[in-house]
Structures are given as C-alpha cells and as structure tokens.
Amino acid sequence: MGAGHRPADRYAIGAYRSRRVRPGVPGGRPAAAPHSPPRPPRRRPALAPAAARRAVPVPRPRPRPAVGYGPPVSTTTSPTSPTSPAESGRAATPARRKRRVSVPGVRHERPHWDAGAIVAGVDEVGCGSWAGPVTYAAVVLPRDRRIYKLRDSKVLAPVERERLAERVRGFALGVGVGHAGNDEIDRLGLSEARRRAARRAVDALPLRPDVALLDGNWDFLAGYGTHNERLVRGDGRSVSIAAASIVAKVCRDALMAELSPGYPAYGFASNKGYPSPDHVAALEHHGPCPLHRHSWAPIAGRAQLRLFDA
C-alpha cells in the first residue's frame, strides 16, 4: 500500500485511526504551517477633546404614584405650598393602605341549609367595655332570600347599623337577644357571664336552631345541644353572624344611651362604657359608679385610690 492510500483491512483501518495517520503526511504528522507575520495590535480610535464631546443626558427616575385606594395625589408642588414637613408644621407620615372590608357570604350556611338544618348566627358585643352588660344576639336568616349590605358592625356607621338592624328584625325568621349585667360579670367572671348571655339569646329565638355559627375561636355554647361551628372573624365571613353582630351592637348601644342620664359624668351615651379618654378622666375624678365592672383591675384600682384619698 503506497503513501497516501488508506489500508483496506479493517484492522489496518483501526491501526490507522489509532495512530491518527493523515493522508499525504509522512509519518502521520501534519506539515508545519508556513510562517506568518504577527498581526499589528488593534488601536482604539482617539477620543475627541472633552469640550467637544456631547454630554449624554442622565435619565431621571419617574415619580411613582402613591399606594392606596384614594384619589391620585399630585406630585407637583405649587409655589405657595410648603415643600418640607418642617415648613408645614406637621410630621411626614407614610401613606396608609386602606383595609378592604370583608363581604360576608353564605358559604358556611349552605351545606347545613342543603341538609335541611336551621342555622343561627351568634355574636357578642361589650366584652372589652368597663361598664354595662355583655350582650349576645342570635339571628336565623331564611335560606331562599338575601339581605344586602350586611357587614361587620364595627365597619358600619351608627345610622347604617340602625337601619340594617331594623331590616334584619323584619327579614329574619328569628332574632334573640341576651344580656349579662355587670353584677353577673363581677360575681361569675366574664367567661361564665358570656355563656349565660349567649344561651339567653338562643333561648329567645322563636325556633330552635340545629346549627350555631359562633364568632371567634371559643365555643361559648358547648353542651347546649346544638352543632356549633367556630369562625374566626366570622362577622366578616358569614351573613348570619354579621346580622347578629349588627343587632347586638344596636341593642347594647341603645341600652347604654338609656342608662346614661342616670350617670351623666361618664358619657355612656357616647363611649358605651369603653375606656375613652373622657371616660377615664371621669373615673379619675369621680371614681366608679354602680354600672362599672368593679372586679376588673382598672376599676378596682381606681376604687382603692378613692378610698385612700377619702
């Protein structure tokens, strides 16, 4: 086999590949490449003088809109408006995001309605008050009709609450209200007083419920004989609980306004027994009255101070 020809035998072909023999190259090595002169180094183009360079504008960040659900805020300032918090006389506060109001539905009532059960929503008001009763309301709504604009009572204006409470009383299949006075709270404790008020509210219904939807994570109707479901923030998730919260709030507010003329110094018609600044100031000056929960630490401490002062 002459030079420049591949071997015909397959073993010779394997040997040819293993030795990396290249055709036309003596000894299997490539011939040296002819010598080429080195390339000249690349030269960068000369820059123009600094004065002749054109200034490149720097992009400025665009003003971002304020986060929130209110009307758009103008980013421009008028010549007469102050440009700093120090000039305006008030501290700069970050924009608050408006909390979305939950719309209650019938998702928790629907399975029980489909099974033919009577569902009652139960909610309370007045647990955090320093005076007056704790009030519960139980409401049984019809399964085939709806009442619109029901919300948690805390997010409604007083006029809207009263209007909705009147609609609920005429629309619902049953409404029951139960109270536990401040004397019961002092004698039995808040937990037992809440149990009694809740049972009184359900007992006041014209029909016996099979299922009770309770606001919160505590079963205050345990052992009552109903199937109880606890819903945290239930007044924003269930229409039955939202209706009960509105009825309880309106009923207790009316009761405190009715009792207020007997104790005008404490302003129960406006603060409803909660520790507002005016209420706390009246306690400091006059001491507790018979409507206050005397077993509670803030009231008991002020009563002792009055005894020492006397």
Give an overview of the whole structure.
- The chain is elongated, with a radius of gyration of 41 Å.
- It starts with 9 loop residues before the first helix and ends with a helix.
- It is an alpha/beta fold and 310 residues long.
- Helix 4 packs across helix 7 (239-259) and helix 5 (182-188) crosses helix 6.
- Helices cover 33% and strands 10% of the residues.
- Among the domains are: 110-259, 2-Layer Sandwich (Nucleotidyltransferase, domain 5), CATH 3.30.420.10; 262-309.
- Strand 1 and strand 2 (134-140) form a beta hairpin.
- The chain contains ten helices and five strands, in the order H-H-H-E-E-H-E-H-H-E-E-H-H-H-H.
- It has helices at 10-18, 85-88, 110-114, 158-171, 182-188, 190-203, 239-259, 268-271, 277-286, 297-309; strands at residues 119-125, 134-140, 174-180, 211-215, 227-231.
- The protein has a five-stranded mixed beta sheet.
- The model is unreliable at 67-88 (pLDDT under 50).
> Could you report the average pLDDT, rounded to the nearest whole number?
80
How many helix segments?
10
| CATH architecture heading of one domain | 2-Layer Sandwich
Name of the CATH superfamily of one domain:
Ribonuclease H-like superfamily/Ribonuclease H
Rg over CA atoms: 41 Å
**Major β-sheet strand ordering:** 3-2-1-4-5
Helix and strand element order: HHHEEHEHHEEHHHH
- CATH class type of one domain: Alpha Beta
Q: What fold name goes in the CATH topology slot of one domain?
A: Nucleotidyltransferase, domain 5
Stretches with pLDDT under 50, minimum 5 residues: 67-88
Distance between the termini: 133 Å
Q: Assess the beta-strand content as a share of residues.
A: 5-15%
Sheet bearing the most strands, described?
5 strands, mixed
Structural class of the secondary structure composition?
alpha/beta
What best-fitting shape do the alpha-carbon axes yield?
elongated
